[in-house]
Amino acid sequence: MKKKVIIIIIAAFLIIIFAIFGYQQSNDNNSFGKAKVPAAVQRWRPLVSEIANKYGVGNYTEVLLAIICQESGGGDGTNDIMQSSESEGLSPNAIQDPQESLNVGIKYFKSIVDYANKKKCDFATIIQSYNFGQGYVDYVASHGGKSTKELVVAFASAHGGSYGDKSYYDHVMRYVDVTSTGGASGSSQSPLSNYDSLIKTAEQFQGQPYVFGGDSPSTGFDCSGLTQWVYGQNGIKLPRTAQEQYDSTSKVAPGDVKPGDLVFFTATYQCGDYITHVGIYVGNNTMYQSGGHGIGYTSLNNSFWQQHLAGYGRVRN
pTM of the prediction? Predict the structure, then answer.
């Protein structure tokens, strides 16, 4: 009897562990490749996953591990493993607790992601800005939204020439295997091959009203319910909410957006998520969406949508 009780306790413990780590893994949508880092960095994966999910950047877990590898010299160079001290206005390596370094560093990374998305800048800008600071986001945004080597050099030169690491993006991404995802920024992935079928599926609901919580023809559709159902009918599985769809897609620079990509918005209403609305990009700065005026085409030139635009994402065929 005692042995049976012990077995039950062990089984319950394993279920709890699976639930915890299974949930974390489900939120680590790997849109950017797989980190190829040494064991000294890999040991931080569970904590990185936990903190990244807490701040809503779980899909960047692999990239964050690569940043840790770069900042810590392979995991053994410093206790401030994300070199987070400066982001708090402290002297370099002032933080001596690795867990504090992770929390501060990932929180700072989240702020850069949000700001870069708001400014419609690309993935490379996000990575380089972890080293250069948010000022680089503004600089790239004023030069087309896409980070280039020329912009990196020009920005560093404007700050004294020896400012930061001018090859930071390359130094971080050498620790990421992007072959399994088609590239880090998402722009190298192919746009939808079945776009015509997808938009034809969507158009059958044109003119119907927006229904909060709706996710099928029988209930009506809210924004993410429409995109989930339409893409699903065309063989592409999307998660349910706008935030989850944003997290699961590869980010696309404004200059690379194609029909069939998703367009995301923030703060369109009050809720706990950063992303609050999603539509289907159809070209000519227009989207197809389920919104306050019903289901149909809407111009992205509208001042409301411009104010709340968060960025674009590409789904996988």
Answer: 0.52
